[in-house]
Amino acid sequence: MYRDYKNKNVEFYFVYKSLAHPQTNGFVRPTTLDERLMHVAKARGSLGTTIPWVVDSMDNDLKHAMGSRPNSEFILDPKGRIVRMRDWSSPEAVRADLTELVGKVDKPTDPRSLNMRADYGHSEVARGVVDRIRTSGRGMALKVKTDEAAHPAYVKLRAERVSENGSTKLYLGFFVDPIHSVHWNNLSGPVQIEVNGKTVTGPKVKAEADADPREFLVDLDDKGAVTITLKYVACDDDETWCRKLTQTYVVSMEVDRDAGRPRGFGGRSR
Fold this sequence. Notes:
By secondary structure, this protein is mainly beta. It folds into 2 domains: 2-114, no CATH class; 140-255, Immunoglobulin-like (Sandwich). It is 11% helix and 34% strand. It is built from 3 helices and 16 strands. The strands form 4 sheets. Strands 7, 8, 9, 10, 11, 12, 13, 14, 15 and 16 form a 10-stranded antiparallel β-sheet that branches. It has a two-stranded antiparallel ribbon with strand order 1-2. Strand 7 (140-146) and strand 8 form a beta hairpin. The protein is globular. The chain starts with a strand and ends in a 15-residue tail after the last strand.
């Protein structure tokens, strides 16, 4: 937010940072700046907001510079100096701040009058038809580099180091990205992954198509990076094309501080 003392104008901005809770409402972590901009366009259209967005770099430079909090807010003066900062957003507190710094407004906005909606427009393809993996311990997210290849990263990988039955495993979760409007085609058989040259086959799914994640627990090699290749068949949600696709990922053993934490599933981090 930016405060103009002379004209008593306040400009509001949303800042798009790395997702604090990936997989919420089906959205997964983007791998390119263009995908972040697509998320912003989706949010603007779905929520009906008119407040401008500032999109952070893929290295999350702004997030790190501002303290790496997931839901922070700041008030800046005309010279760019921070005059108020809060680790957790509080609409009541920021209204009180602005009243003190700028003055009262004649007609304060009632949030209920905004008629905010949350229609994210995801496809109607089947969900909840593939069992999720549950682990006994919380996972530690690892850094993933995605090869864009000749097509967008239709499927995003989340990799975590987890403790399972006294041993350390590598959790691999492959999530279809809804912003690309594609889904798994199961008529061609299960997805397959290759982990450092070893092939692992995913579950057989009765539904002809779905958008559930494909998850694996594999032995972890802490000695270095792990190369993973995903082979699958995807179709677009309008059923105009289906393709055999391959994506390659490299998982390092470095903890990813910007990976966020999925909510509400199992003991790992969801």
